[in-house]
Amino acid sequence: MPPPPPLPPDSIYTSCYCEENVYLLCRTFLETPSVVELWEIFAVFISNANKTVALWSQKAARSPGTPVVWDYHVILIIRPRRKEQTMEAEGSKMHSWVYDFDTTLGLPRSWEEYFSLTFPEDPLPAYEGCAVCFHGRPKMLMKSGSQFRVVGGEFFVQNFASDRSHMLKTTEFTGTKGPEPGIYLSPPPSYAPICGPSAVQKGIANNLMQRYVTMSTAVNSDFAVYGVVLDNESANAFFAGL
């Protein structure tokens, strides 16, 4: 199996808009025949019911060795296509590879290394109950495991839509009712909000939080389009059990 494709030099990155960074990279990979021929491509949303997920080895950490607690995070993972696995010599190790624009581990990084260093075992006792911030909003850190919404790259690029309203400042910052028009928690990308072709056809302008960030399987019954939700163990088996 050839090495994973490097991050394209013209990749676009905007801080705090991980879903858009991954969308653009996913689209680039899908448009690259040499990538599609060898690799399955997935957008992976990481969150939980509390929207408090602790990730280690993140650039935004306040100090080395401490976690960043996000309401959600998004990464891209490529996995060897099954037909390629059968061509490998028996006993050779196949790897999935992670592209996380916000990790300190470098990218791409093998899933096994990324998973063990980003989600260490028994990670929270020193941080449980402490206040943290993400997307500018204070929250209480709770010991709640990460969940992973795994979405096929083609479906993600076709159906994802975000109007960026989740990043608008609200009453907790300004003392006014509702979101403040044009006042963002973090500067938005310079390009127009993303709306995939299928989302455009369906008249959907925003489905980020309701369809992708949520980890409720009751909300999304269309698993082909919006992916499946896995716990830590199942996600590790899916990407490492090759």
TrEMBL record:
Its EC number is 3.5.1.122. Keywords: Hydrolase. InterPro entries: N_Gln_amidohydro_ab_roll_sf, NTAQ1, Prot_N_Gln_amidohydro_ab_roll. GO terms for molecular function: protein-N-terminal asparagine amidohydrolase activity; protein-N-terminal glutamine amidohydrolase activity. Signal peptide: none annotated. Residues 13-238 form the Protein N-terminal glutamine amidohydrolase alpha beta roll domain. It catalyses: N-terminal L-glutaminyl-[protein] + H2O = N-terminal L-glutamyl-[protein] + NH4(+). Monomer. One of its GO terms (cellular component) is nucleus. Mediates the side-chain deamidation of N-terminal glutamine residues to glutamate, an important step in N-end rule pathway of protein degradation. Conversion of the resulting N-terminal glutamine to glutamate renders the protein susceptible to arginylation, polyubiquitination and degradation as specified by the N-end rule. Does not act on substrates with internal or C-terminal glutamine and does not act on non-glutamine residues in any position. The keyword Hydrolase applies. It comes from Hypholoma sublateritium (strain FD-334 SS-4). This is Protein N-terminal glutamine amidohydrolase. Belongs to the NTAQ1 family. The keyword Transcription does not apply.
